[in-house]
Structures are given as C-alpha cells and as structure tokens.
Design goal:
TPR_mt, 65% helix, mainly alpha, PPR_rpt, single chain, 43 helices, extended
Length: 768
C-alpha cells in the first residue's frame, strides 16, 4: 500500500480491509506529518483526519507557510487590541443595488427558484420594511376585513363563548423560531420542565389517595392523623365548597321538620342559605316560624340574617335586625358585631363600621381578627391604602392581634393595587413564618401582585406551578393575571399554553384577557433587535385576537379599551401614520377615544413630530391626566416656541397642574428673557400659596367655623369621655379630703415636694 503512511503494519492492514467510514477518529496522519490544523485550514480544501495522501498534506503546509509569511498576516486568535489600526478600521465592500441587473436576473428567476418558496407571492408585499408590505395591516384594511368576515360568518347564539382554539392558538404563535423560543422558555424557568396537568400527579392528590388507603386498611394511625391535618389547611377551598352547597339548598322550614332534622343549628343554616340566595323575606319568615314552634333564636340566628343583609349591601336592614336581636334580650357576640360591621362596610359606610368597633369596646367586647379584617378590607376597597396599613400595624402591635391567612391576603391585595410586588412577597414570607399556609385566594392575590411589574412577572408562573403541585383550584382570576404577566414579558409562547390550559379546564376568556393578549404584542414590539418581519407578524396576530374577541362577545365588548390596545401596538412598532389612522375606526365600532387613546398618540407625536403634536393637542377634549400636561410642557420647551409654552402654562394654571421640578428648572433657563413666562410663574406661585394655606387650615384646624369631619368626631368623642367622668378627680371621703388639703403627709409631698436642681453643684462645676 504505497499511498498509506507507514506507521504500523497492523493498522495498515486494517485500513485496507475496512471502509472509509470505519477509519480511526484520531488525527494520527496529520499529527505525524505536520502541526495540528487551525481555523484557517478549514477555509481551504484542507484534508480531514482521514486523509490517505501525503501530497495533500504537503500542499496544506505549503499554503500555510506562504500565508503566514505575508507582512500583513494576523492570526485568527489575535486579540482585537493587537490588530493593526489600519486593518481594524477597514470597512467592508458596500453593497449596491442595480435595477437593470435585477431585471436581467428576473428572466431566469423561474429556473433558478425551482424548489424554493417564491417570496414575491407573500401577501404582505415584497419589501421587508416598506409601505407596500405593511399596507394590508393598515387600520382601514384590517377593519374592513374584520367586518367582512363578520358578515360572512353564520348567525350564532348570543351566549358569549370562547374562541375556536386552533384559530386563537394560531394567532398567538410567536414570530420567533420555535426551537429558540423553547430554549429561552427553559432558561427563563430555571431549566424546570412543565408540570403535569393531571391532578393525580400532584403532591396533595397523592397524599389524599394515600390517606384513603390508610383509612381502609387501618395501617399506621399516627401517619393517618398527620396526613388528615395536612390536608385540611385550605380554608379558601372549603369555604367555596360550603357556599356552593348553600346556593343549591332549596329546602324550607316545613321540609326540615318533616325530615326530623329540625334543630336550632340546622334552622340557622337554613336561614343562612336562604339569605345568601337573596331570599331575605323567606329567611325572616323562617325566623318567625322557628319562634312560633318553640325554637328559641340565638346569636347565630341573627348572624345568618345579618349575613343576608351584608350580601344585599343593606346597612339599614342590618341595623334593624340588630335592634330586633336586642329586643329579644340576646347578647351580642364578636361574630354578631363582625357581621354587622361587614354589612356597613359593603354598603360603603366604613366610618359607621369604626363607630361600631368603638361600641364593641365600650361594651367590653374584645374585637378579634375577623373584625379588623373586615374593616381593613373596606379601607382597601375604597383605595385608602395608607390608612389600611396604619390599621394593620396598629392591630398587630398595640392590640396584639395575630393576623390570619385572610388578613394577610387582604394586605397582599393592597400591595397588588399599589403595584408593590416586593412588599407582597415579604408579606408571604411573614405569613409562612407565622406558621400559616397560603390558600388558593392568597396565591391568586400574590400572582396579581407580581404580575403588575415586568421585573417580577416570571414569579407568577412559579406560584402557579405551586398551586398545581398543591392541587388547588385555579380560577379565572388567576388565569387573567397570568396573561397579564405574559403581557409584561411579551411571551406569546406562554400565553398560547395558558389559553390551551384554559380550554382544558373550561375557563372562558373574558374581555380583559383579550386586552392582555393584544397588549402582549405591543410588548413584543419593544424587544431589542426586532426585525420588520416580526413587527408585521405581531400586527397580524393582534388583529387576529381582535377578530376572535369579536366572534366570542360580538356587541358586549368594550371596544374603546380593545382599540386602545391596538393603538398601543402600532405605537410600539413605530407605525405613527397607522396609529393616527386608528382614530376614524373608533366610530366604525361605535366607540369613542378616551384619555388613554390621546395619551398613546400624544406621547408618540411628542417624540417624533412636534408640529402634529400641537395640532392634535388643540383638538383633544380637556381636561387630561396630569402626566400629559407635563409631556405637553416638555414638548413646548423642546420646540423653542414662547407662544406655545405660554399657552401650555395657561392651560396648566386652569386645571390646575404644577410643573414638575425638572421642567421648572428647564423653564427657568429657557424663559429667563421672556416677560410672559415670568407672569405665568408668578400666577403659579400665588396659586401654590393659596392651595397650601387652604390645606393647612383643614389639616391643623385653625378655622373653628368649618371643622373637618375628623375634628367634629374628635370633639364628640372627648365630650363623651367627659360625661363618663374620665377626666374627673377621684372621689374621697370628707375626712380623707381634709387630710389631703393639710400641710404635710404624702398628698402634700406629691403636690409641693418636687425635685429641684442643685444650683450650688452646678455653679461649682461651671467654675471648675
């Protein structure tokens, strides 16, 4: 074998017998006859490790020596700072397009494109970022296509149903590559695989199955008891099951007596079921019937009646029921007061709830955690978040009330309203530190809290997987905020998976969920390095979601909010002309632009076109949110127009809205030589003085003729304390009173023998 190098007779014999694919994998040939291969050798027709010719190896070595001996040779592994500046700054060849060459090549295109997709047949056009390619996605064309599809669709029932799953899933497909997006999702989730959707694979379901087996076999009673305790720590699930049972109750008092189950406890449950169903007249008739037949009502009876009044948000009826209870000489319990306070809070009268709290304290009834939870929840629902936190800390520190799962859930809801995700996570840690377990409602609120910010949105899916592991029911509220988290992340893959799971669990998409799905593509537009093709695909998917929403809800949609999301997609993609063309489309769907619409358009034009900004600003109905006035003043300062700046300042003075500190500094530099701006600033200073004086008078109570409601209540409270004798001196017998007035004794010493400073010691220390 003359062509095979002589490195071993046995190996040479194997080479002669085996095919080429079975040759050794180690680079023995090249290592024996030359240095190892480099990256430069791969650019030429260099031999592989399976080479069988010495001549090819010599050609490679000769070509390498010639290349490395060149004066301007730079090795591939040379750091960029060692590369000569002349070669480092060298620009590549500029690509030029010649239409004549393209026409010549166009004749032979059918022969050259055999087996390749013809890009010219793309319905979006030919140019990647041109007007022709995006023209079919303009607002007018998309709206006409949507209406035409709605006319061609056969008439269906008016019951709102979810969209067809394959169609909506197709609209949620990401424009990115499937493999890359799948790898990204694995990296984002920490490498964890998707949990199983089957309930029997979850942890708590397995524990429940084992507990049933132990109960049947009687094996290990201690383990059975520990499992039964672990399985009963979800009050949210149990409460929902109990409410469903009461909602389906159709019995009455006569049926209860005929079945032989008539007792005070069962009748109380019957009254509660009737009250929660909204049948307050039947509930009160049941109360009268139980008195007539010798069943004495107790406090639990009136708790059930008060729960019905709270369900109807009827505070007057709740007060009448409370007086009826007092008429029957039934003592009020903390549960009675809690239900009465809940009726007032749900009616929007939280102040009366606090008055009832003080009434409890006057009657020496210690309020429990339920009462404080009801009051704090009322403050949170009214938007008084700071006051709710004050009450929470006061109840926990001064009144030594230990919070339960419900109170922690209410405070997590307050964090979600204020978009404070980190504070909500700290509260969840506090809940677990206290030895409590989150309920399904707690998980729902924590998912709501973390889904409000893009920084913590990924944690929402961690809590969702935790709910699946604990076999907790997932409501539409949880799915809605999971879609909101997908919106902040711009993750269409996860949104598509969520929609599939909602279909499996028979959860219908709500109009708010459709808004989140459309807003998802606006976030995807803002991702770095988004190509024009991806932007056009995002627009197509957004309009596809709008079509699915119209098919599901027809005329029951809030078209203003949904079209605002479409405007946001156009603005995020940089299609300013199309965003302005969306204004006439609101009338097509019977809607009108609102403050959010003008905010999208004004912020877009403020960054791109100052002239069109002020044209739109003059036609927008006023007043607008305070942030838009700050944007208008910023644009006026950038336009260097004193007339526009003075006009914006005059409008801000009318609202009134004060310029921010940053804009005030810029205004001082830009308008130092303009007298009109100085006059406007003087008017703002006078307005600020009047506002501050008015707020100080209301806060400090300097005016006696117009006290605040808080000051009036404070005066009534201290008058009540004076009538009770709180500030009165203690009464003494006449003999002890005379002794206390005489000189000498303990009473005289307490009044007169007060400690005085040692002046002599003070003067001595100062002189020294």
């Amino acid at each position: 074998m003359p062509a095979v190098p002589r490195f071993g007779q046995r190996q040479a014999k194997k080479l002669a017998q085996r095919p080429v694919a079975a040759l050794p994998r180690t680079p023995q040939f090249f290592v024996r006859f030359g240095p190892p291969m480099t990256a430069e050798d791969l650019t030429h027709d260099a031999p592989s490790v399976l080479v069988e010719s010495r001549k090819l190896i010599d050609d490679v070595l000769e070509r390498r020596d010639k290349l490395q001996s060149a004066p301007d040779y730079v090795a591939p592994d040379t750091p960029f700072w060692r590369v000569p500046a002349k070669r480092r700054n060298k620009k590549g060849p500029k690509w030029e397009f010649h239409p004549q060459d393209a026409e010549d090549e166009g004749e032979a295109a059918p022969e050259q494109l055999q087996g390749i997709v013809d890009l010219g047949r793309n319905p979006l056009g030919r140019t990647p970022g041109g007007r022709r390619r995006s023209e079919p996605l303009s607002p007018s064309n998309a709206t006409s296509k949507l209406l035409r599809a709605d006319e061609d669709r056969p008439a269906e029932a008016d019951v709102p149903q979810g969209p067809a799953e394959p169609e909506l899933h197709r609209e949620l497909d990401s424009p990115l590559d499937d493999a890359a997006a799948g790898a990204a999702s694995v990296v984002e989730s920490g490498g964890a695989t998707r949990p199983s959707r089957r309930p029997e694979d979850s942890l708590i379901a397995a524990l429940r199955r084992k507990a049933t087996e132990y109960a049947q076999t009687g094996v290990d009673p201690e383990l059975l008891q520990s499992l039964s305790e672990a399985l009963q720590h979800h009050p949210g699930t149990e409460r929902a099951a109990r409410l469903r049972e009461m909602q389906s109750c159709e019995k009455d008092f006569e049926a209860l007596v005929m079945e032989g189950k008539a007792s005070v406890a069962n009748i109380n449950e019957l009254i509660r079921a009737q009250a929660l169903q909204g049948r307050m007249a039947d509930a009160m008739q049941t109360h009268d019937a139980m008195k007539l037949h010798g069943y004495a009502p107790d406090a639990e009876t009136f708790v059930s009646l008060l729960a019905g009044a709270a369900h109807q948000r009827n505070a007057d009826l709740a007060r009448k029921l409370f007086l009826k209870m007092r008429e029957q000489l039934i003592s009020a319990t903390p549960k009675v007061y809690a239900t009465l306070i809940q009726a007032h809070v749900r009616a929007g009268d939280t102040a009366s709830g606090y008055a009832l709290l003080r009434k409890m304290e006057d009657e020496s009834i210690q309020p429990d955690v339920v009462v404080h939870t009801v009051l704090i929840n009322g403050l949170v629902n009214e938007g008084r978040i700071e006051r709710a936190w004050e009450e929470f800390h006061a109840a926990r520190t001064w009144k030594l009330i230990q919070p339960d799962e419900v109170l922690f859930t209410v405070m997590i809801k307050a964090c979600a309203i204020m978009q404070e995700a980190e504070r909500a996570l700290n509260l969840l840690d506090d809940l677990r530190t206290c030895g409590l377990y989150p309920t399904d409602i707690t998980y729902g609120e924590i998912i709501h809290a973390v889904s409000t910010t893009s920084d913590h949105a990924r944690k929402a899916f961690d809590f969702y997987r935790q709910m699946q592991a604990e076999d907790l029911p997932v409501s539409a509220f949880v799915f809605e905020h999971l879609l909101q988290a997908c919106r902040h992340l711009g993750d269409a893959k996860r949104a598509k998976a969520l929609v599939e799971e909602m279909g499996e669990q028979h959860v219908v998409l709500s109009p708010v969920m459709y808004n989140h799905l459309v807003g998802l593509f606006a976030t995807a537009m803002r991702r770095p390095h988004v190509s024009d093709v991806e932007k056009l695909q995002n627009l197509r998917h957004a309009w596809g979601v709008v079509s699915a929403a119209r098919e599901a809800y027809s005329d029951k949609l809030d078209w203003t909010s949904l079209l605002n999301e479409i405007v946001g997609v156009y603005v995020a993609g940089g299609f300013s002309d199309f965003a302005m063309d969306m204004l006439p489309q609101y009338a097509v769907f019977g809607a009108e632009p609102d403050a959010e619409t003008w905010e999208h358009l004004l912020r877009m034009l403020g960054e791109r076109d100052i002239g069109r900004f002020f044209t739109l600003w003059n036609s927008v109905p006023k007043p607008l949110p305070e942030e838009l006035y700050q944007v208008a003043l910023d644009v006026a300062l950038r336009s260097r127009s004193s007339q526009q700046t003075c006009a914006i300042l005059e409008e801000m003075y009318t609202v009134p809205v004060f310029p921010s500190p940053q804009l005030t500094e810029r205004l001082a530099r830009a308008g130092r030589h303009i007298i009109q701006i100085h006059h406007q600033i003087g008017k703002f200073i006078a307005l600020n003085r009047d506002v501050k004086v008015a707020s100080a008078k209301r806060e400090t109570g300097l005016t006696v003729r117009s006290p605040t409601p808080e000051q009036e209540f404070r005066d009534r409270y201290f008058d009540k304390l004076k009538k009770q004798g709180v500030f009165r001196r203690p009464w003494l017998p006449f003999g002890e009173y005379l002794v206390s007035k005489q000189k000498g004794g303990e009473a005289y010493a307490r009044r007169h023998d007060k400690p005085r400073p040692n002046l002599l010691a003070t003067s001595t220390s100062s002189t020294s």
